[in-house]
Design brief:
The protein has 201 residues and is mainly alpha-helical. The protein contains 10 helices and no strands. The radius of gyration is 24 Å and the shape is globular. The structure holds zinc ion. Zinc ion binds next to loops.
Length: 201
């Protein structure tokens, strides 16, 4: 059930997404190297200089600094604002779609896990256990609170035939024929592969 959000609450979800995205950037940089994500504090990967809190505000600091380190003026990777922006957009979309609900929490957790895995894979070809294993565990824990719509799992596993074939008609192709256009003429069918001819396509 969706609870209607005010625009301010959707903006809050986006801001939370940007902060989570900032943390995901730390995870993307450090987890593949088995480094701690809590210490030491953020440093410029080029000059090693510490990054002050006001230079570490998601998206905003990148724009204010013109995409360059304050100390050495070397370019900051576009991955940092991209991950923050993408996570913010996904959280905003989840809040808009599901409101304040466990379904929105499920969406945000899945989004964060997928963003981390995507960029970690792109940069290092490593998928950290912290996200694959704990992401799967989070999915299991959230499943009773935010179950998937009925019929979705059979649809994913078995495909469209699972929803279209009935007990009295175990052949999904035959069932589709009754819904679709007429069977091809014998002449067309003779030139068409067997299964395709039976389902009229
Ligand atoms: Zn620097």
């Amino acid at each position: 059930m969706k609870t209607q959000l005010s625009p301010w609450l959707s903006a809050y979800a986006a801001a939370l997404g940007a902060i989570i995205g900032s943390f995901l950037n730390v995870c993307i940089s450090r987890l593949p190297a088995d480094e701690s994500v809590s210490a030491p504090r953020s440093r410029c990967p080029r000059c090693g200089g510490g990054i002050a809190w006001y230079d570490n505000i998601p998206i905003v600091s990148f724009l204010l600094l013109g995409g360059r380190c304050r100390a050495c003026r070397m370019p900051i990777s576009w991955r940092y604002p991209l991950v923050e922006l993408l996570t913010a957009a996904l959280f905003w979309a989840g809040a808009e779609r599901w409101g304040v609900s466990w379904a929105a929490v499920r969406w945000c957790v899945l989004s964060a896990v997928m963003v981390e895995l995507l960029f970690s894979d792109l940069e290092t070809r490593i998928l950290p256990d912290e996200f694959t294993l704990w992401g799967a565990a989070a999915g299991v824990m959230l499943s009773p609170l935010a179950p998937l719509p009925p019929g979705l799992i059979p649809l994913i596993v078995l495909g469209e035939s699972a929803t279209r074939g009935g007990e009295n008609n175990p052949d999904p192709f035959a069932r589709r024929c009754s819904d679709g256009p007429p069977l091809p003429s014998p002449r067309t069918a003779s030139r068409t592969p067997h299964s395709v001819a039976r389902c009229c396509r």
